[in-house]
Write a structure and sequence with these properties.
globular; YaeB-like fold; 3 helices; five-stranded mixed β-sheet; alpha+beta
C-alpha cells in the first residue's frame, strides 16, 4: 500500500543540499513511506512524531515525520544541532 507524502512549510525550507544529498534524501523518504516504523518514536512534547536518522558521507541528517495508514507528513529536515528545539517551536 502506498502512502501519500506531504511536506510542512518547515520541511519545504530545505537547506542547501547537494545533488547527492537530495538523491539520498529521496531514497530515505521512500524507505519511510514503505515502513514508517523505522523512525524512532518520540515522547513528551514530540509525542506522535518519529525521527529517522541517516548519513550522507559523514554528514548526519534527521527527518521528523508523522504518519497514519494513508499519509506521511514530513515535518522537518536538518542536522542534529538545534533540530529538536526548532521542531518543538514549529509544532507549538
Amino acid at each position: 500500500m502506498s502512502r501519500q507524502v506531504s511536506q510542512s512549510p518547515l520541511f519545504e525550507r530545505k537547506k542547501h543540499l547537494t545533488k547527492e544529498e537530495f538523491a539520498v534524501l529521496d531514497d530515505e523518504i521512500r524507505r519511510i513511506c514503505a515502513a514508517p516504523e523505522i523512525g524512532e518514536a518520540k515522547k513528551g512534547d514530540l509525542a506522535g512524531v518519529s525521527v529517522h536518522k541517516f548519513k550522507v558521507r559523514e554528514r548526519l541528517f534527521l527527518v521528523a515525520y508523522e504518519y497514519d495508514e494513508k499519509e506521511v507528513l514530513l515535518l522537518a529536515l536538518g542536522a542534529h544541532e538545534n533540530f529538536y528545539r526548532d521542531l518543538k517551536r514549529y509544532l507549538a
